[in-house]
Amino acid sequence: MPDRAGRLRDALLAADFTADGLLELLGASAYAALARSETVPALRATRADGPLATLVRLFLLQRPVPYERASAVLPLDEALADGWVVEDDDGGGGQVRATVDVRPYGGPEGQDWFIVSDLGCAVGGAAGASGRGEGVVLGVGGASTTLAGITVRTPVASALDLGTGSGIQALHAAQHATRVTATDLNPRALEFARLTLALSGAPEADLRTGSLFEPVASETYDLIVSNPPFVISPGARLTYRDGGMGGDDLCRSLVQQAGERLNEGGFAHFLANWQHVEGEDWQERLRSWVPRGCDAWIVQREVQDVTQYAELWLRDAGDHLLSDREEYAARYEAWLDEFEARKTRAVGFGWITLRKSGAEEPSVVIEEWPHPVEQPLGETVRAHFARQDYLRTRDDAALLADHFVLAPEVMQEQVGLPGAEDPEHVVLRQNRGMRRATKVDAVGAGFAGVCDGTLSAGRILDAIAQLMGEDPVLLRDRTPQAIRLLVEEGFLEPATRV
Ligand SMILES: C[S@@+](CC[C@H](N)C(=O)[O-])C[C@H]1O[C@@H](n2cnc3c(N)ncnc32)[C@H](O)[C@@H]1O
């Protein structure tokens, strides 16, 4: 089978069945329509004969194609024997159709990969496969690529992809981890992950069935990634999204248990949903999830009220297409009943990263950042934790003795009325990574502008004090907190790179 998967891969590549090839054949608007689950433009664009059009209709658009056309592109006997395609009985003979979706997916270094998922799910999500049952296995979604983007990609010995689904995270991990373990509660998912890895030319992973950390209960890893079934729903209907543990318990358990499964220095990345409960601070709720010995960085990217949230997931499952409107209303009610019972007013969505530091006073940063960011953020995430390590070793005196450089992507914006002589305030803005912006006073702006690593922070403050006619002792006293914040948020970097 491995050789046969290799031959199939070669055939797909020879026909230019790649992310770039697809864009070229379909054109930008039909390609973008696919991402919105609309297949009509792509069907029109693939009417003409040709190897690539044949593969797109077969593996992405779930259309039968004539046997001859398929055999001109694929090692068809092997593909039939291995079950990638079957003969189509309904087509009056002479046709084949795919049994799975195969979606070309470009890796971070331009690799040509393929994600294998259930029929109808590569571009349509679960709604494209509605009626297919609770064990449906989806292809790549926005959450999948977000998680892949925030993952720290330093070379490691071992990685765990918990809830692997189509295997996309395991595929990314295989590029920088010597050993990859992929688990899933759904045994069908493990079969899809195996096909994704084989067809993408990646090494095999250690595939294990089971819930949460059960299948790896005695092991530890350098990297853990999980895009879990985080949806807070009224009941377990779809394994890929409904954790079935009630509220946000599944995400909490994952995060809490990850501490014991991480090696020293290891990272764990999760996508998660969390409840905003009446009378409770959402940040405190999350803080209580962070396991001992771990630093954490938690970013809330979005908050939806319970009606928006219920509608999102009703649509995701295709429930909005139900012709029985009473049934739809009953399903909608069930979501609202569930939230009412749990005193949940809204649901937060975001990223949770843990880093096992063993620090006595772990750094736990929990913030709201709904603004656009520049993916991939893995290096930004790694640097965040490195800066926390640096800051915890520096008291104010040590900070003032250190040298800093302005991060390369930081620009200054002067904000004020048009024509005014002086700005009302100055904003430092990062044009990369988290794309943060922060308001600074005249001292902060002057300080940041001079930071090229030549002078110590204290010497720069002395010079600013002299220029502004301030008392240097007072300035040295009141500024370290602001410097700390600029370092924490990545505007300034210690001159010896962390
Ligand atoms: C949202 S999908 C993520 C798939 C894939 N990792 C990705 O990033 O696109 C969640 C996966 O978790 C699996 N899953 C559901 N409940 C689980 C559990 N209790 N333990 C482990 N995996 C579970 C589902 O079968 C599904 O494949």
How would you summarize the topology of this molecule?
Blueprint (H helix, E strand, L loop, with lengths): L1 H13 L4 H8 L1 H8 L4 H6 L5 H9 L5 E2 H7 L2 H6 L3 E3 L7 E4 L1 E7 L5 E7 L23 H9 L5 E7 L5 H6 L3 E8 L2 H13 L6 E4 L11 E6 L22 H13 E16 L4 H6 L6 E12 H11 L8 H17 L2 E13 L7 E5 L9 H15 L3 H6 L1 E4 L3 E6 L9 E6 L6 E4 L1 H9 L1 E5 H12 L3 H7 L1 H9 L3 E3 L4
Parallel strand pairs: 6-7, 6-9, 7-8, 9-10, 11-13
Antiparallel strand pairs: 1-3, 2-3, 4-5, 10-12, 11-12, 14-18, 14-19, 15-16, 16-17
Helix pairs in contact: 2-3, 5-6, 13-14, 17-18, 18-19
The chain binds S-adenosylmethionine.
Task: Give your account of this protein's structure.
By secondary structure, this protein is α/β, with parallel strands linked by helices. The chain contains 20 helices and 19 strands. The chain starts with a helix and ends with a strand. The relative contact order is 0.07. The mean pLDDT is 94. It binds S-adenosylmethionine. The site of S-adenosylmethionine has 23 residues, from α8, α9 and β7.
**Helicity level, as a percent range?**
25-40%
Structural class: alpha/beta
Q: Cofactors and ligands present?
A: S-adenosylmethionine
Biggest pleated-sheet summary: 8 strands, mixed
- Shape label: globular
As a percent range, the share of strand residues is 15-25%
Which residue ranges are poorly predicted, with pLDDT under 50 across at least 5 consecutive positions?
none
Radius of gyration from the CA trace? 26 Å
Strands side by side in the biggest sheet: 8-7-6-9-10-12-11-13
Separation of the first and last Cα atoms: 45 Å
Give the strand tally: 19
Q: Supply the number of helical segments.
A: 20
